[in-house]
Amino acid sequence: MGLIPYENEKYQDWSDARAQEKMRGALSTVGEALGRSYPLIIGGKRVETDAEIASLDPSEPSRVVGRVGRATEREADMALETATQAFGSWSRTAPEARARIMLRAAGIMRRRKFELLAWEVYEGGKPWSEADAQVAEAIDFLEYYAREMLRLKDGVPIYSIPGEESRYFYQPMGAGVIIAPWNFPTAILTGMASAALVAGNTVVMKPSEFTPITGAIVAEIFEEAGVPDGVMNYLPGYGSEVGDYLVSDARTRFISFTGSMRTGLRINELAARQVKNQRWIKRVIAEMGGKDAMIIDDSADLDSAAADIVKSAYGYSGQKCSAASRAILHADVYDEVLNMVVERARALKIGAPAGAEGGADVNVGPVISEPQFEKVSGYIDVGKEEGERVLGEDPGDPKNGYFVPPTIYAGVEPGAKIAQEEIFGPVLSVIRACDFDDALKIANDNPYGLTGGVYSKNREHLERARHEFKAGNVYFNRGITGALVGVQPFGGLGLSGTDSKAGGPDYLPLHMLARTVVERF
Ligand code: NAP
Question: 259 and 352, same structural domain?
Fold first, then answer.
């Protein structure tokens, strides 16, 4: 196929009045479409359920963004059966044809971009630039995995011995379950599903209960792009009601999951148990949480470090698996960096990204849901015992939106709860290190290992961190969020996941079976 070389999707320039106007137009159009119902999609048919899940706007929880069907084990069974039946013909569809469908889905997303951004803003409470980066990432996944499939379609070279031909190639696996989180509802759902689909598998897609409308739009786009009936099935529902069933079923060949450590470990455990009629070891791709640290040493460009700490800690209200939640500062620069971080974080604009006061300049929106609001508020209380709150106040009434102000605790001990557990909100723990060794030890002394950063001009420190910083994605002298597809393959070590490296060259083979076929002549 004659494709142009892969390139990341461009972001909007929000200083451009035309982009702002288009966004306001999309918010208004999508605003009129709020409150609709979206049934399940199984085998191309719309399937109604007895109960529904209401998806709420986290900036204004009285506003229903939409309602989706609430799958039970009955519908989960139908979806798995449909995906299993559809596997035969889809797995035999030419890789080029599957790739074209992904490229068409990317084209549709580009055309519908502002609409998608508006859904993200309403359902996810995302500031505009965060929504934009996320939809760009979804497009990148589609473009990148399509090209990856074309690269891998005939296998990869190996050696043969004289008189024989050895071939090494890949085949699709079967029907898989895609389980997505709410924090990147377009990008992660699209990424996980498109990798599985382009590789020739069929899928049952379960979006998060908090962002199922975005999930429904992604499903619609796959349909419109030409994914055949039954190959992609959309199954919104509560993880607690259908998750175990989907994971445990004998027909499930693989599970591609992104979410919390707790759920990921449960899925891994359940998937490992063989059930009746199961004829394979289920493959689990699980990308989980993080407690990501940025180390600032005494040689660093402090102003730039402070700016990147703030960006990495408070982008999407700290609700990124890659968010900086620990700043580990060398004692000699501790006070200076802390003051700069506090001043920059204080200047962030908090608001409802879709509201009348909202706009491209809102930096911090709400957290996603009432449970998340309660969880983060709980950690803010714990922090009062474990550090000195140098920024932030107690969150207000969640009825007025799940807003949590950017919060900084200084003087936190490395072993404190707020320095060890994933909070997933706008709360930063600042920790003092006596030297670089100490800083690296503190950073690594955590069960997670997703992202990490070092700000330093000391080559020796950077080279040590290159090998010794226990994180799947390590960044030097820059922020630690916003991994670009094809440029910064993403995935964690330790209890952050299976190190699958989404958006990288090793990702697609995780969705396929490698075959070695040798013929003697
Ligand atoms: P979560 O609570 O673990 O939920 C993730 C998904 O799993 C949701 O669709 C959820 O459904 C489903 N689920 C819940 N219980 C299940 C079960 N027993 N079996 C199967 N599925 C089940 O995580 P989240 O709160 O949505 O997402 C935030 C977490 O994701 C954070 O820990 C974050 O660090 C992590 N994350 C990691 C990455 C990465 O690349 N490493 C990227 C993004 C986010 P319901 O919504 O219905 O509960």
Answer: no
